[in-house]
Structure formats: structure tokens, C-alpha cells
Write a structure and sequence with these properties.
With about 650 residues, the chain is of the alpha/beta class. It contains 17 helices and 26 strands. Helix content is about 30%, strand content about 20%. The strands form 6 sheets. It has a 10-stranded mixed β-sheet with strand order 3-21-4-20-19-5-6-8-7-18, sandwiched between helices. It has a 5-stranded mixed β-sheet with strand order 22-23-24-25-26, sandwiched between helices. A 4-stranded antiparallel β-sheet has the order 10-11-16-15, with no helix packed on it.
């Protein structure tokens, strides 16, 4: 029997819960006047969410902090004027594929995907650049120079005089790395589904800071696990002292941990991939009217902490009739006997002062679902076991031994790309994560794509279970070093290597009979499609006015306009696109009528009527397609008559 609190509803706690759901990184801990540690709102962080400029005002509280954090938060909230341009020549099956490969800075790419993919991504995996004490290629506005860092961290005064004895070079790189990760992870959080899961590969340099960062951005309750990956069992000496390093980490987090179930995978595949980790003997396969099953555990709770004192309602008698299959339950102190029934008492508890273990199932569940229990009678004693219908299922453990860096190199060797990366992630590792964390129709995103092992893992998993998972890879247009093996093989950028890997991996799967989607739509990050005017009215000369008539840059194609418009409308850039010729005009149809677009310099009445009859949700034209306001009004009225619910816009 519970006790009434006799207090009013706690509005403060409820309000904090509300803010924590939307802004988990703004929830911290503080100590009250009576010394009690409780949840509180970090108002400085929350204020920053509603401001377009830096908000000052530090206060003492528990949180992860570093020079440049406020700038990183500001940058994550700022919009981007950039866009995505299609690259048909770099793509595979451009018109039909649902996969994307985006070349360019991942922060801008994530911002562009925020609206089209809000809450649609099931799994994020990233293998970001490890902090090895070097500057990063991701040169955001918040990246600190050495002098800036020393000032922000209080190591020099405004005159530049040193205030501490030693240089915090390592701290500067910690700060730059954290700022780089903070902005990207914060934007990426909005893409995850409610039951979305994220994995981040990391080594020992930043694992402690990264865990705090993830706990802040996603909420401490949504940090799921630290998976240890033994990447090199031979060991590597990474410092002058201490043991040789054998492992890295994969930090796992969720959008909402309450929506996450166990990471279940195929026991047969897990044992094959990691025989040193999954050694469980195969259980005898049995069958009943509901199909095959195995039995592993008895019904009683093996933890003695659950007993007649702590779980009183879960301690009772179970009666079973072997002839009829009927099941009954009764109180522990009810010694009524039922003719034809055999009684199972709770398991004896060996802890002093206790008598019984609790059952794992409630009375109601036993009576309603007893077909999922096996009743075994031996020597007049009744033992009850739970039936497991997922006969091949096995829960993934938080250690990975088997797939290694050498395995990752072998994956590339199989595609004749073996010498292009020093430490590629093994496809088997990523396949395991995908198999336990996603369903057959889910979307997987990797915004530090590198060699695109994640893309190959998605394709492989689809080929194994018949799934239709999609992937989005994002890779910076990082140049291959001159004199590198990649450069000698004709690859100019890391992104070019990634695209080629997907091509070869897809071709290899097709050779083995896979008929699913192995293509990708290549897109490149670029400046805005709209004409940029950098001159003031006083600086504008009469002869330059004609060049300012068009709202669209002269180098942009109709497809460039289409993709830029799709992003503006919040439409997935992987949506299916068809094109047809209507009265001499190219007309695009996106996502079966979501958008109809014609970017001709002029649009005929016949084309307008054909577009209107299809009744799309949105119709798009080039702004210059209408020479006069009267022509624009006439076109709009005609379309409204044919399709009154269609929105009409120009670019």
C-alpha cells in the first residue's frame, strides 16, 4: 500500500521535465541552500537558444565547459545560406535510388537536412577525426588560434603576459575538438526518430569528454553504453609508458532511452563474427502449436533481492493440469489442492530471513500467456520455463572482439582499394550495429563518412535480410595528400574514394544476385542558388543593372534550382524524381505529386494547364518566366482554378 504525499503538484519539476525533453543540454545539477543536489535549468545555455548573439553570464554549476562553447552553440543555431547541387555524373542510378552521398562540410549539410529529415533518422554512426593534437580540417568560426585560446582560458592577460607556467596546447585542441563536435551533434539530434540511436567511434584521447558531451546534448538518461572494440589485439604502443593499446570505444546514445529495446541480433551471425565473445551453446529447438521455440531460464527471478518482502505480489503458487493444460494461481498461504493439478511453489531463497524468490511474470500474465511457458514435470516436481520464440535471437554485448582494423583493410582489399586507408572501420562491425539497431526500412546517416564503410554495411545488411534501408553519407571535400597512394591512383579527394567504394561494393553485391538499391544520388554543397549582391545602391552603376535582373546565378541548371527548392520546401532530397516534356518544356515531378516544377525562361499556357491538372501540392517556376505582373497573375489564377489547394512559388 502506497502512502499519499499530501503535497500539491510539483510544477517546478514538471516544467524542468518539459524543458529537458526539448533542451536536455540546458539541464544541469545544482546544490540548494540545505545542501541537496537537484536538477536545475542552466539559464545561460537556455538563453543562448533564444538569442542570435553571444549571451554572457557564467555561474557556478556542474557542467562541461571549455573556451569556445558559447560560439559553438551559437553556430549550431544559426542558419546556412548554402545549398546542395546534384552531380549526376558522380551518381549511380540517380533517378531511382533513395541513397545520398553529400560532399562538403557536414555542419552545413546537417542544417540543410534538418527540415526534410526532422525526426526520420533511425541510426547515426560517425567515426570523427580523433584528437591527436593537430588542427582540424573543419575550420568553423569558433576554431581558436593559440593566442585566442590562451586569452579565453585565462592563461595570458590582455597584454599577452603569461599568467600560468605551462602552455595548455593540449587544452586548446580539446576545446577545438569539442566545439567542432558540439555543433554537429546538436544539429544531428533533431534528425533522430524518437527511438533513434547514435554510435560514435572514439579513442582514449577524448572518450571522457565525449561521454560528458553526449550526456549534456542528449540527456544523461539517454546515454546507453560504452562499447569496447578490440581493434588491434596485438597491441600498439601509443605513448612512452604504460600498456600497449588494443582497443577503442564506441559510445552509444539514444534520442529517448525509454523507447529503446535490447540490441537483439542473430545468434548464429554473432557467433560466426565473434566466436570469442558469443560462445553460448545452441539450445534444443522445440515446437508447439505456435511454432518453434527454445527454453533457457526458469520462471523465477534469480535475483534474491526480489522476494516476498520486496515483491509481495510476485510471490504465489502456480497450479498446472498436465491433462487439460489448464493453469491456476493462488496465494502463497492458500494450501487448497486442486484434483489433477500439480503445484509449483516459488523457488527457495537462501538469503537469511527470506523464504522465496519472486516470479518474473505476474499472475495476470501467467494466466493470459501460459502458452508461452513450458511446464516440465519430473519426479513429481513441476518446473516452469519461459519459451523464447526468437530462436536465433541474441542480445549484443558491450565488447567487440573479432572485426579489427586488419579486417577493415581486408574489406577494402576485396574491392581492390586496400592501400588507400590506414585504419578503416571493418564492415562487419558496422553491420552488427546496423543489424541490432535498425529495422528493414530505416535510414542510417554517417556524417564523417571517410571510406564509406557504413554505406557498404547498409548494403550488405539489406542483401542478407531483404531490407530496404537507406543511407546518407556526408564527407568533407578533403584533398588527398600529394604523393599519397590515393593520389597516385587518381583520387583527388577523400569523397571521391568514398563514392568509388560504394560503386564497387554495390557491383560486387549485384554479382552475387542482390537486386536491391545499390545506387546513390551524389550532391555537392555549394553557395546559395540566388544571385548575391554585394554592392550598395551608391556603388551600383547603370550598366550593371541588367546583370541584377535575374534572381538566380547564371551557372545554375534547372536541376540545381529543383534541389534548392526541395530543401526550402522541406522535401527529402532523396525523393523520387521524374521528368517529362510538356509543350516543349521540361517539367519535374517530385515524390509523386509533392512538387511540380518548370524552370523554363517562359512557360506556355498549355504547360500551365497540364501542370494544374495533376494537382500537385507545390508548383515552382523561375521568377523570370513571367515578364509582367499581369502574366504572373493570369498564370496563378489559371492554376488555382485547376488545383485550388496547390501552393505556387517562384525562384
Amino acid at each position: 500500500m502506497s502512502r499519499l504525499s499530501l503535497t500539491s503538484f510539483d510544477n517546478t519539476s514538471d516544467n524542468i521535465d518539459f524543458l529537458a525533453e526539448r533542451f536536455p543540454h540546458a539541464i544541469t545539477e545544482t546544490r540548494s541552500a540545505d545542501g541537496i543536489v537537484a536538477r536545475a535549468v542552466d539559464w545561460d545555455v537556455l538563453r543562448q537558444e533564444f538569442s542570435g548573439h553571444l549571451v554572457e553570464g557564467p555561474q557556478e554549476r556542474f557542467h562541461l565547459d571549455w573556451p569556445g562553447k558559447r560560439e559553438a552553440l551559437l553556430l549550431s543555431n544559426s542558419s546556412t545560406a548554402r545549398t546542395l547541387r546534384p552531380a549526376r555524373g558522380e551518381s549511380v542510378d540517380f533517378d531511382r535510388t533513395r541513397n545520398l552521398f553529400i560532399e562538403g562540410d557536414n555542419l552545413d549539410a546537417l542544417k540543410l537536412l534538418q527540415e526534410p529529415l526532422l525526426g526520420q533518422v533511425k541510426m547515426i554512426y560517425i567515426d570523427p577525426p580523433y584528437n591527436t593534437g593537430n588542427d582540424f580540417l573543419y575550420s568553423d568560426d569558433f576554431a581558436s588560434s593559440r593566442d585566442d585560446y590562451l586569452k579565453q582560458s585565462g592563461q595570458v592577460n590582455e597584454a599577452g603576459a603569461r599568467l600560468v607556467a605551462t602552455s595548455e596546447t593540449g587544452g586548446r585542441f580539446h576545446s577545438a575538438w569539442l566545439s567542432m563536435m558540439y555543433a554537429r551533434l546538436k544539429v544531428a539530434r533533431s534528425l533522430l526518430m524518437e527511438d533513434g540511436i547514435g554510435f560514435v567511434s572514439i579513442d582514449g584521447n577524448e572518450v571522457a569528454q565525449l561521454k560528458l558531451l553526449l550526456s549534456e546534448l542528449f540527456g544523461p538518461d539517454n546515454f546507453l553504453a560504452t562499447i569496447t572494440w578490440v581493434s588491434n589485439l596485438k597491441g600498439r604502443q601509443i605513448s612512452d609508458g604504460g600498456p600497449a593499446g588494443t582497443h577503442e570505444y564506441i559510445l552509444c546514445f539514444a534520442k529517448n532511452s525509454q523507447s529503446i529495446s535490447q540490441f537483439r541480433g542473430s545468434g548464429a551471425l554473432l557467433r560466426k563474427l565473434m566466436p570469442d565473445v558469443y560462445k553460448g551453446a545452441a539450445y534444443a529447438l522445440k515446437e508447439d502449436s505456435k511454432g518453434p521455440y527454445v527454453t533457457k531460464n526458469e520462471l523465477y527471478n534469480t535475483n534474491s533481492k526480489f522476494n516476498e518482502r520486496t515483491a509481495r505480489t510476485m510471490v504465489f503458487r502456480i497450479h498446472y493440469n498436465p491433462d487439460s493444460g489448464e493453469v491456476r494461481v493462488s496465494d502463497l498461504d492458500d494450501d487448497t489442492s486442486y484434483p489433477g493439478f500439480i503445484t509449483a511453489m516459488p523457488h527457495a531463497n537462501s538469503r537469511p530471513g527470506l523464504n522465496w524468490h519472486a516470479w518474473r511474470w505476474s499472475r495476470a500474465k501467467i494466466l493470459a500467456e501460459h502458452e508461452d511457458l513450458e511446464f516440465d514435470i519430473s519426479n513429481g516436481k513441476l518446473r516452469i520455463r519461459t519459451k523464447i520464440r526468437d530462436v536465433d535471437g541474441m542480445t549484443m554485448k558491450d565488447i567487440v572482439i573479432g572485426p579489427s582494423t586488419m579486417t577493415g583493410k581486408a574489406d577494402l582489399d576485396a574491392l581492390e582499394m586496400g592501400r588507400l586507408f590506414d585504419t578503416p572501420k571493418p564492415v562487419g562491425l558496422l553491420e552488427t550495429l546496423i543489424s541490432v539497431a535498425t529495422g528493414p526500412d530505416d535510414l542510417v546517416v554517417d556524417f564523417f563518412a571517410g571510406s564509406c564503410a557504413t554505406a557498404e554495411a547498409v548494403l550488405r545488411q539489406n542483401s542478407k535480410d531483404g531490407g530496404h534501408r537507406r543511407f546518407i553519407m556526408v564527407q568533407l571535400d578533403e584533398e588527398c595528400g600529394s604523393g599519397s597512394q590515393a593520389a597516385s591512383e587518381g583520387f583527388e579527394t577523400i569523397a571521391a574514394i568514398g563514392r568509388e567504394r560504394i560503386r564497387r561494393a554495390g557491383a560486387a553485391l549485384r554479382e552475387h544476385g542482390f537486386t536491391g538499391d545499390t545506387g546513390f544520388r551524389a550532391l555537392r554543397l555549394d553557395s546559395s542558388t540566388r544571385t548575391e549582391v554585394w554592392m550598395t545602391a551608391d556603388e551600383t552603376k547603370q550598366e550593371s543593372l541588367l546583370g541584377l535582373q535575374s534572381t538566380v546565378k547564371s551557372d545554375r541548371t534547372d536541376e540545381d534550382l529543383l534541389f534548392s527548392s526541395m530543401l526550402d520546401l522541406g522535401i527529402d532530397p532523396a525523393s523520387p524524381i521524374t521528368r517529362q516534356i510538356i509543350d516543349g518544356h521540361v517539367v519535374f515531378d517530385v515524390a509523386d505529386g509533392a512538387v511540380s516544377a518548370c524552370f523554363s525562361q517562359q512557360v506556355s499556357q498549355e504547360a500551365l494547364m497540364n501542370i494544374g491538372r495533376t494537382q500537385p501540392l507545390h508548383v515552382l517556376f523561375r521568377d523570370a518566366a513571367f515578364n509582367t505582373d499581369a502574366a504572373r497573375i493570369n498564370a496563378e489564377q489559371m492554376l488555382k482554378q485547376l488545383s485550388p489547394n496547390t501552393t505556387i512559388a517562384t525562384v
